[in-house]
Design brief:
With about 220 residues, this protein is an alpha+beta fold. The protein has 2 domains: about 180 residues, 3-Layer(aba) Sandwich (Aminopeptidase); about 35 residues. It is about 40% helix and about 20% strand. A hairpin with a 5-residue loop joins strand 3 and strand 4. The protein starts with a strand and ends with a helix. Bound molecules: coenzyme A (COA). Coenzyme A binds next to strand 5, helix 3 and helix 4.
């Protein structure tokens, strides 16, 4: 059964034939393709479209088509994939994104990627997820950082599918592992548990004792001044 992920504003879903055309337009936008070796012709865009479908057939997950829930428009893709090359961090699953420029700057990539990360850890049971880009792609790196991914420059690598001397060959690698991901999620208070947490603090004699001691100390210091 096809997997779909819902977020507040996005539906990450299997690709439709109707996505081909907006996908082609996105892949010929110089803003979107700034950090890729070239813009894609219609044929190349279609080949990528089909490669993404084959990846779903082979692995059961992939780069989902991202649709705005508000008006069902295609805005790009977000998802998980197995890179097609060998590198020091392989085997690995990467998280990746590409959105129409009109959709940028509203937190959509991060929102979709959070759902994909959760799916990767909670449903696929992955131990770690990586992401990579060229050093100059600050937008994409910012998404990685907002997801809690970390960068160690000792992991940086030359992309083996680009020839030596190519200006985009050097790549930065970001990682997040299951433990870091779950620690970040348990740190976020689930909305329905706020009341319970407040009650736990109020009923803790030790917290009250420390609070009053601190409070009294501050006033004692002020009075002395
Ligand atoms: C990367 C991309 C998916 C981000 O999409 P998005 O929905 O705009 O991302 P978000 O809004 O979730 O986050 C973008 C962050 O980058 C920041 N940003 C934007 N332009 C920036 C710049 N020039 N330098 C540094 N940070 C920048 C934003 O302010 C935001 O961070 P903030 O929330 O802390 O303010 C989108 O720019 C894109 O499709 N780029 C082209 C394709 C691409 O490069 N894909 C990645 C290949 S690895």
């Amino acid at each position: 059964m096809a997997v779909m992920l819902n977020t507040e504003r996005l539906l990450l879903r299997p690709w439709l034939e109707a996505d081909r055309e907006p996908f082609r337009r996105m892949n010929t936008d110089p803003r979107v393709m700034e950090f890729f070796p070239k813009m894609l012709s219609s044929e190349e865009s279609d080949q990528l479209f089909e490669r993404i479908q084959r990846h779903f057939d082979e692995h059961g997950f992939g780069f989902w088509a991202a649709e705005l829930r508000q008006d069902q428009s295609f805005v790009g893709f977000v998802g998980l994939a197995v890179p097609r090359f060998e590198a020091h961090f392989m085997p690995a699953v990467e998280i990746g994104w590409r959105l129409r420029a009109e959709a940028w700057g509203r937190g959509l990539a991060t929102e979709g990627a959070r759902a994909a990360l959760r799916y990767g850890f909670a449903t696929l049971g992955l131990d770690a997820i990586v992401s990579f880009t060229v050093p100059a792609n600050r937008r994409s790196r910012r998404v990685m950082e907002k997801l809690g991914m970390t960068h160690d420059e000792r992991d940086d690598f030359d992309h083996p599918l680009l020839p030596e001397g190519h200006s985009l060959r050097r790549h930065v690698l970001y990682r997040i592992d299951r433990r870091r991901h779950s620690s970040q999620h348990s740190a976020l208070p689930p909305p329905h548990s706020c009341r319970a947490s407040a009650a736990a603090i109020v009923s803790s004699t030790r917290n009250w004792y420390e609070f009053w001691r601190e409070f009294a100390g501050v006033w004692a210091r002020r009075i002395r001044l």
